[in-house]
Specification:
This protein is of the alpha/beta class. It contains ten helices and 17 strands. Strand 10, helix 4 and strand 11 form a beta-alpha-beta unit. The protein binds NADP nicotinamide-adenine-dinucleotide phosphate (NAP). NADP nicotinamide-adenine-dinucleotide phosphate binds next to helix 3, helix 4, strand 11 and helix 7. This is Putative quinone oxidoreductase.
Length: 326
C-alpha cells in the first residue's frame, strides 16, 4: 500500500512559506532503496536554492532536504547493508528529508553510531563528510600540518577544525565574524581565531601564519581566495568548499608558489569516497574525539521559520536541524 508522509513538499518555488508541511505520497520502494522513518533532518544552505528554483535538478513537486537520520522501516529486496530497525544517517535521498518518511538508495545510507542522537546524526553528512573529504581525501592532511579553516563558526568550519586537530594538525587557525562564533571555534579546538570583520584582519592573519601554512579549507572563496593565495606556503594546497559570488584572484600567485587548488563538492563525490568518509567519521566518534555540534533545533512545522532564520541570523553557530516526531 502507498505510504503517506507529512513533508515540506515544494509544489511551486517560492519563499520560506512554501515549506509548510503537507501530505506526500511516496513512490513504491525500489529494490535497492531503504524506507527511513525520519527522526531528524539537516538544514542546508543549498535547500534555499532548491526552494527558490535555482537548483536545476529539483523540479516541483518534490520534498526538500538532502540529509538526515532515522530508523530503517523497510528494505528493498536487493538491499544487503541494512535491516528493519537499524539506526542510520544518509545524504542525497530519492525523496527529501524534511519529512516523516524518506526513500534513499542503500549506497547513500550509513550506520549511525550508538553514541549519537538522531539530531547529531542528521548533521554528519553534509558538513562533517565535506570537511573530511576536503581535508583528507583532497587536501591529504598530514600529522604536523599547519591548517587555516576559513569560516570556522559555520557548519563545515566547526567540523573541519575538529577533524584537522583530531588528525594531528600542529596548528589550526580559523576565522569567524561574531564573538560567539569565535568562542565556538575555540571550543572546537582552534588555536587562534580571527574576526574577518576587523579592520586589520588581513595583516593579522598574515602575521599569524608566517610562511608555514600547508593547507587551507576555504568556505568563502569569493571574498577570501586572493588572500588565501598570499597566506599559503609554497607548494601548499587550497581546498575550496564554498563561495557565494564570483571570485577574482591574481593567478600569478598560483604560479609563483606552485599552489594546488582543489574543488570539493560532496554531492558529486563518488559513492566509495562518501562511504570512506562515513566510515572514518564512525571511527573518530568511536575513538571519542569527534562530537557533532548541533545548532538550533526546529520542529517540522517550523521548517519555514528555519529558512527565515538562515538568512536573517547575525552569525553562524554550527548547523541547524529539524527534529521530526518528537
Ligand atoms: N562543496 C560542498 O560539498 C559543500 C558542502 C557544504 C557546504 N558548502 C558550502 O560551503 C559554504 C559554507 O557552508 P556552511 O554550512 O559552513 O555555512 P555557514 O554555517 O553559514 O558558515 C559560513 C561561515 O563563513 C563565514 N563568513 C560569512 N561571510 C564571510 C565573509 N564575508 N568573509 C569571511 N567569512 C565569512 C561565517 O562567519 P560568521 O557567520 O561568524 O560571520 C561562517 O563562519 C556555503 O557556501 C555552503 O553552501 C559546500
Amino acid at each position: 500500500m502507498a505510504k503517506i508522509a507529512m513533508a515540506s513538499v515544494i509544489k511551486e518555488f517560492g519563499g520560506p512559506e512554501v515549506l509548510a508541511p503537507s501530505e506526500f505520497k511516496l513512490p513504491h520502494i525500489g529494490s535497492k532503496q531503504v524506507l527511513i522513518r525520519m527522526k531528524a533532518a539537516g538544514i542546508n544552505e543549498v535547500e534555499q536554492k532548491m526552494r527558490r528554483g535555482q537548483f536545476r535538478f529539483a523540479q516541483p513537486p518534490f520534498v526538500i532536504g538532502i540529509d538526515g537520520a532515522g530508523v530503517i522501516e523497510e528494505t528493498g529486496n536487493e538491499v544487503t547493508k541494512f535491516k528493519k530497525g537499524d539506526r542510520v544517517f544518509f545524504m542525497k535521498p530519492d525523496t527529501g528529508s524534511y519529512s516523516t518518511l524518506c526513500l534513499a538508495p542503500e549506497d547513500n545510507v550509513y550506520h549511525l553510531h550508538k553514541n549519537l542522537t538522531f539530531e547529531e546524526g542528521a548533521i554528519l553528512p553534509v558538513p562533517y563528510m565535506t570537511a573530511h573529504r576536503a581535508l583528507l581525501q583532497l587536501g591529504k592532511i598530514k600529522q604536523g600540518d599547519f591548517v587555516l579553516v576559513q569560516g570556522g563558526s559555520g557548519a563545515v568550519g566547526l567540523a573541519a577544525i575538529q577533524i584537522a586537530k583530531g588528525l594531528g594538525a600542529s596548528r589550526v587557525i580559523s576565522t569567524a565574524g561574531t564573538e560567539e562564533g569565535i568562542q565556538l571555534a575555540y571550543e572546537h579546538g582552534a588555536d587562534v581565531v580571527r574576526n574577518y570583520k576587523s579592520p586589520d584582519f588581513k595583516q593579522t592573519l598574515k602575521d599569524d601564519v608566517g610562511s608555514g601554512l600547508n593547507l587551507i579549507l576555504e568556505t568563502n572563496a569569493d571574498v577570501n581566495f586572493d588572500l588565501d593565495l598570499d597566506l599559503i606556503a609554497r607548494h601548499g594546497k587550497i581546498v575550496i568548499v564554498g563561495k557565494r559570488g564570483p571570485c577574482q584572484c591574481d593567478i600569478g600567485k598560483v604560479l609563483s608558489k606552485e599552489t594546488t587548488i582543489l574543488g570539493c563538492a560532496l554531492l558529486y563525490a563518488a559513492t566509495e569516497n562518501r562511504q570512506d568518509s562515513a566510515d572514518a567519521l564512525y571511527r573518530y566518534i568511536e575513538a571519542g574525539w569527534l562530537k557533532p555540534f548541533v545548532g538550533k533545533i526546529y520542529k517540522l512545522d517550523e521548517a519555514p521559520q528555519s529558512h527565515v532564520d538562515m538568512t536573517s541570523r547575525k552569525g553562524a553557530m554550527g548547523k541547524d536541524v529539524i527534529s521530526i516526531e518528537k
